[in-house]
Amino acid sequence: MRRDDEGIALVLALLFVVLLTVIIVEFAYEMQVDATLIERHTSTTEAYMAAKSSIALSMSILAADLLFGEEEAELESTDVYDSLDEPWASSTPLLNLNEAMISVQIDDEYAKINLNALIYEDRGGGEIEFVPLVDALTVLFQVRMREGEVLPIDVILDWLDTDDETRPEGAENDYYQQLEVPFECKNGPMDSIEELLLLPGITLEVYFGDDEAEFEQLPLNELLTVHGHPEGRVNVNTASFEVLEAMLTADGRDPAPSQKADEILQRLDEVGPYRSIGELRSEAIIRELPPPRPRDEDDDKNQLPPQLPPPDLFDVASEVFRIQGDGQSDDAQVRVEAFVWRDTHGSGAAQMFRIIDWRVIQ
After folding, report:
1. What is the pTM of this model?
2. What confidence tens digit (pLDDT) does each residue in 165-197 have?
3. 123 shares its domain with 260
4. Number of domains, the chain
5. Phi and psi torsions of 173, nearest 5°
């Protein structure tokens, strides 16, 4: 009996040791997990704060650029302009910020075709297509779409307009409601360029570029925007060849738009940026202003005013920029993408900058 009791006691002691070991190991594991999560959270927080700091750094660079540009314009009697040879357009190297690293990239949204300018309201509230910009978008898609594929121009216009009338190759609410995951047609301005991926015909190859294409294709977010010039103008100093070619083709005045686009880029490289609207007129990039017609006393006061000339499609200054700020702390990386409006023309705004959109990517 005594030996049996001693055997049971030994078994119980061993069992107790095993249970105690399991509890200690589990506790140690949970402590290690908690410590890792806390460390990870701390690193992520530091990376996020570093990315936010890079946005502030970028805005200070853009502010300094504007102040310098205003002084230069006053001294040299030119316009305020923005170009790719300015400090804001240079890639910023990695910088130390406390225990983190930051980097930043600034892109000009006025260098792209503004989709939200494709349709505008007239004085009576009616919707009108901005034909030159629609033509430019058509040229852009003709270059990057494969033969036989339907151009998504009507689809984009149906997404933007407020009515439910479907264009010949478009899609309205009845189409989107029949999808496996139905959703409403926007019928209004786009909030982000990624909305294009919701539209029929905008495949991943169309959006990001076809690897099998003869020439390299930039992603659509590098050519199109929803935060561009409200009147659809493009900054000639910062636009890519594809955008320049499309806009010049839509303008229709130059018989060789591709050659003209090359000449513009060559001029920017050899001479420098266009510093004023006058320089754009002198090189026939935009139209000359028609001379004012004197009004005679015999003119009928009720007659309609003369037809306005076609709008200009190019500019030399920009107001909206995309800032991509990256922060890294240990193994944690955070990107903040901000679209900021800068009061370039001194309109008397209370602040020089306004945040239009803010995204955090981890």
Report:
1. 0.83
2. 999 999 999 999 999 999 999 999 999 999 999
3. yes
4. 2
5. -60, -35
